[in-house]
Amino acid sequence: MEQYAIKGGSPLVGEVEIGGAKNAALPILAAALMSDETVYIDNVPEVSDIEILLDGMKNIGVSVKKKGRHFVTINGGNVTSIEAIDDNLKKIRGSYYLVGALLGKYKEAVVTLPGGCDIGFRAIDQHIKGFKALGADIRIESGVIKAYAKKLVGSHIYMDVVSVGATINVMMASVLAEGTTIIDNAAKEPHVVDLANFLNSMGANIKGAGTDVIRIKGVERLHGTEYTIIPDQIEAGTFMFAAAITKGDVMVKNVIPKHLESISAKLLEIGCEVEEADDCVRVVASKPLKPTHVKTLPYPGFPTDMQPQITVALALSQGISIVTETLFENRFKYVDELTRMGGNIKVEGNTAIIEGVEKFSGAGITAPDLRAGAALVMAALAADGFSTVDDIKYIRRGYEDFHIKLQGLGAQIALVDSERELRKFKMKIG
Ligand code: EPZ
User: Which atom of ligand 1 is nearest to the CA of 187?
Assistant: First the structure.
């Protein structure tokens, strides 16, 4: 079974290029089927969640062509079925964007209920509330969501919780509806704005994305477009924290610094230097890390998808820190693994109380989910000695070439697939 082999203890130094945002690419690719004309999308990350969505789209007759690693053309002119049901789609959260896209275009969708990382109970009541408000009948049967409408009519929808997925899904379902839809208490994440920009480039009429209130005036049809997906805020943040955790000096390139403000602010608070330029951010950690308190919140707050990474950094700081997770109740599962590496962390409910230690020590650890997996790799890179990280399939869901990018920063990390390869790595690094 594939795993990462890591020899820790050296700072990461150098430059790293950030790819397109997975969580923007998922809804954008799904929404592309809403036009009968060809849509050209650039900066699509090559990660497994995206591959699964694209395969699912091909299975219902969408023409999907990859040209190079990051350029995809989509044509939804010959969709043969509104039923997107397969075992792979079940594994990813983003599959539910096919409901918004198919319902919006064909007024009917039958889609496998989404899975995704096991980070806690992940309700979809706000998606359902939004679809119903537009006039759809929604049923959930045998793990499948069935949506049907004679016609969709704009409505005023107040979201009871700020939800990225529900905001995006309702936006997609309403772009071709009759009249105006208002989404109140909408999510403001950069990927929500990116999807709105993409849909507008196809002829949609969406205003207010990035604020609490999004207004969507229905249009008759969507046309083809060319679009480049924004850089991945969380991949960028992960490498920024990798600099802090390994006491390194990393230039993170091809980013939108505005999207990284809450991450930069916490890095400054814990004693790192952060220099911003137009499209890059440099993080230098030359002093001992200081403790802090952090609470995860919807954008522009500190992202839940960066919670494991900051926890790993704080576990190596000089003092006591508190991390509160307000979005997902099961997002501290990696703490047990960190404890095995010498971390001193106590989890009480949705709060982690962290007493910083001087060093981690290498261990055999397992990635419990995507972001925690990346954070544990970084912990191993900071640890004394040798570690292995299992279940790296989770990391592959959202990080393209993770170990290769880390190698580019001087990390001693290898992807190994057998005992023999593991021995070879150990012999090479001594
Ligand atoms: C998206 O998940 C991301 N996934 C997650 O990224 C990310 O952690 C999350 O947003 C928060 O930023 C994708 O974009 C594919 P939500 P999503 O709906 O849409 C509650 C990663 O690592 N809620 O914003 O599922 C929900 O339980 C992943 O890349 C309801 O109560 O998140 C949670 O507490 C992991 N009812 C909160 O809202 C609903 O109908 C936020 O969830 C929907 C959500």
Answer: 24
Pocket test for ligand 1, best of 92, 119, 163 (most atoms within 8 A of CB): 163
How far apart CA 363 and CA 365 sit, in angstroms, is 6
Structure token digits, residue 122: 């992940």
CA distance 379 to 332: 15
Asked whether 273 and 256 are in contact (CB, 8 A), the reply is no
- Residue 115 pLDDT greater than 90, yes or no: no
Specify the residue with its C-alpha closest to ligand 1, atom 3. 23
What is this structure's pTM?
Answer: 0.97
DSSP 317: S
Instruction: Say which residues have a Cβ less than 8 Å from residue 256's Cβ, sequence separation at least 6.
Output: 190, 230, 231, 233, 279
Among the atoms of ligand 1, which is closest to the Cα of residue 303?
12
| Residue 236: both structure tokens together | 């960028």
Radius of gyration over alpha carbons of the chain, in Å?
Answer: 22
Looking at residue 118, its pLDDT comes to 67
Task: Give the contacts of 359 (CB within 8 A, at least 6 positions apart).
Answer: 316, 342, 382, 383, 384
Domains of the chain, start order: 3-19+231-429 (3.65.10.10), 22-228 (3.65.10.10)
Q: In the structure encoding, which two tokens stand for residue 155, read together?
A: 């409505």
Supply φ then ψ for residue 84, to 5 degrees. Answer: -105, 90
Q: Is 390 exposed, middle or buried (0-12, 13-18, 19+ CB in 10 A)?
A: middle
Whether residue 237 has its Cβ less than 6 Å from ligand 1? no
Please give the number of the atom of ligand 1 that sits closest to the Cα of 94.
15
CB–CB of 7/422 below 8 Å?
no
Q: Is the CB of 122 under 6 A from ligand 1?
A: yes
- pLDDT of 390 higher than 70: yes
